[in-house]
Amino acid sequence: MSEQSFSGGPPGTPGGESPRPGSARARIVGALLAFGALVGIGAGAWHVLRQAPAVSPEAPAAPGPAAGLADAGAAALAPPPSVQEGDSRVRQNMKALSSDPEFAKWLGVEGLLQRFTTAVSNISDGESPRMVLSFMGPTEGFQVVEDEGKTTINPSSYERYDPVARVIGSLDVQNSVAAWKEVKPLADRVYVEIAPPGRSFEQTLAQAIQHLLDVPVPPDDVEVTERGAIYVYADPQLEGLSRAQKHLLRMGPRNMQLIQNRLRELQSALELPLGGH
Description:
Blueprint: E1 2-6, E2 18-19, H1 34-51, H2 67-77, H3 83-94, H4 101-107, H5 112-124, E3 142-147, E4 150-153, H6 155-159, H7 162-170, H8 173-194, H9 201-213, E5 224-227, E6 230-233, H10 236-239, H11 243-249, H12 253-269
Antiparallel strand pairs: 1-3, 2-6, 3-4, 5-6
Protein name: DUF3014 domain-containing protein
Pfam families: DUF3014
Organism: Stigmatella erecta
């Protein structure tokens, strides 16, 4: 039996194809993979949005002397917050969600709102959110095991994502809802800047969650094969998954099941449409 590894950290780990050696988470709140954790928190935001009167970010101010309507219109047309404003508000309202040191590290990253909205949008489209969520990625290299002519993913490669799964399980529900009552308006304003025409946040969130729920949980010993300078899945069903789905897949069966179970709870509790539509 022999073991091979490759270096390069997040850019060469889950999502898409794997280079060969030498080349790259009130109701339920919180869940999703590295990028999963952020989608779950976003679902908490949408739960708050569903409970309170919402102002469509694209609706113009209604005519009339009522001050409340004028204010609503102004808010709808407000520009997105600056990176500094958004980060400060997010950290202030979300620091009590978890005492896990890893969560504190996540909150220390610049551009939290921009990263969150972009990641949700990417996942809903099946694209990799790696560029905006690289801070959640592992630093250890991906490894495979070769035994009797069969190459499988080394379990240690899955263990690299245990901290992400641990943080997802540590998020405080009540604090999450309270935090998003404060942060949601900022997130809405940022999302409008990247939303495709006619697509609401609810639609995007529902699509992102369903996209990840569609990923089959593989056996512990997932076989891969070499294709030129990269590793690909031997199972065509797995290899045919989107880049976003492969990110979740490569977190390993145990971490996948934790994340998908939370996502199903969210999908039901938030009454999101099944199938993401």
